[in-house]
């Protein structure tokens, strides 16, 4: 019986690539004073301000009990606002402040595309393959 080595597992390749991305992003994030989850939260809010916490959580694949402390910290830093929806007070709307928008604009150059060593086409193909994998796994969990 053939035994797969750790290096043969796709899940390990994805996991180790994620860890390496984290290390590569660390100097960028340190210069911004953010964690990775804070950084992607700011990016998502820059794209669409005024989202509910649950909409934002779905977009970031984060549960509200994980996202809420991130939002509280970003609010304390002056980057986001949180307010109850006038239409449904059970919902909290989240948006970027001017300071938060300025932070995202400052971070526009913080891109690791070149460090990945992929051509533009390879980068797009890899991204699409990873997204397809994620979406297929999510579908299988929903069954």
From TrEMBL:
A GO term, aspect molecular function:
DNA-binding transcription factor activity
Q: Which InterPro entries does the entry link to?
A: HTH_MarR-typ (IPR000835), MarR/SlyA-like (IPR039422), Transc_reg_Sar_Rot_HTH (IPR055166), WH-like_DNA-bd_sf (IPR036388), WH_DNA-bd_sf (IPR036390)
Primary localisation category: cytoplasm
Cellular component terms, GO, for this chain's entry? cytoplasm
Keywords on this record?
Cytoplasm, DNA-binding, Transcription, Transcription regulation
Q: Where in the cell is it found?
A: Cytoplasm
| Entry superkingdom | Bacteria
GO BP annotation list: response to stress
SMART domains for the chain: HTH_MARR
Transmembrane spans = none
The record's Gene3D superfamilies line, in alphabetical order, gives: Winged helix-like DNA-binding domain superfamily/Winged helix DNA-binding domain
Task: Report domain HTH marR-type positions.
Answer: 7-135
Name of the protein: MarR family transcriptional regulator
């Amino acid at each position: 019986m053939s035994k797969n080595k750790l290096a043969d597992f796709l899940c390990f390749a994805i996991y180790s690539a994620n860890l390496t991305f984290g290390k590569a992003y660390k100097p960028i994030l340190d210069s911004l004073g953010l964690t990775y989850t804070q950084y992607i939260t700011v990016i998502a809010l820059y794209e669409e301000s005024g989202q509910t916490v649950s909409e934002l959580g779905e977009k970031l694949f984060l549960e509200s009990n994980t996202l809420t402390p991130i939002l509280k910290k970003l609010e304390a830093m002056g980057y986001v606002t949180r307010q109850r929806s006038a239409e449904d007070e059970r919902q909290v709307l989240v948006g970027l402040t001017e300071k938060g928008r300025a932070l995202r604009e400052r971070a526009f150059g913080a891109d690791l595309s070149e460090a990945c060593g992929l051509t533009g086409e390879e980068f797009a193909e890899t991204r699409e393959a990873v997204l397809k994998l994620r979406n297929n796994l999510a579908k299988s969990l929903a069954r």
